[in-house]
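User: Run a structure prediction on this.
Assistant: Running it now.
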Amino acid sequence: MSHHTPDSKYESLRGFLSLLDEEGELLHITRKVGQSFELAAVVQNVQKTVNKAILFENVEGFRGRVASNLFGSHRNVDRMLRSTSQSLATT
């Protein structure tokens, strides 16, 4: 069950990631990946297949998590802007 309503605002990136996660649109990559080529290869593979947002939870040499491909689809852009691609095209 989503805790976000269509009128609620994303107060942070964390809130947007939470929505994507609740809707099954966020892939969690928990295995260790290298910062450069390996991370980029995973992103490229996801873009060519399921095209979901990605949260890398274990990036070698990096203490935090890394989010990627958040706006890789029109649907995610629509979610973030609380709009539709149709209405954006007319503005």
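The longest helix spans residues 37-48.
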